[in-house]
Amino acid sequence: MSTPKIFESEYRFCLILWECEPIASGELSKLCAEKLGWSKTTTYTVIKRLCDRGVIKNENTIVSSLVSKEEAQRSEIDELVEKRFDGSLPSFIAAFVNSKRLTQEEIAEIKKIIDS
After folding, report:
1. pLDDT for 97
2. 57: which strand partners?
3. Of the four, 15, 63, 68, 90, which is 20 to 30 A from 76 by CA?
4. CA 13 to CA 47: how far, in whole Å?
């Protein structure tokens, strides 16, 4: 099963949810007003949209995720590599590494990840 697409503003909403879940929808609405400047209506619209796409669930006004932060991030990377780098992970990594100066610690961590 593929991970449903989560758009940028929805992702910012999900960051709040992932940090606080499970959470009552009213409480989530207050957090979204505080952190994102959203109205109650906007929050409930996003909750419904994400429920419809299978990203979150809202049972008895308690909201929780069906897609983890890690799954969402992997899906976004997969889409980026496919769209911009013709599916080539080495091309993506080369572009990433060449775009910024990595510290020795970062290089060691990346090597460790690749080796495992």
Report:
1. 81
2. 64
3. 63
4. 9
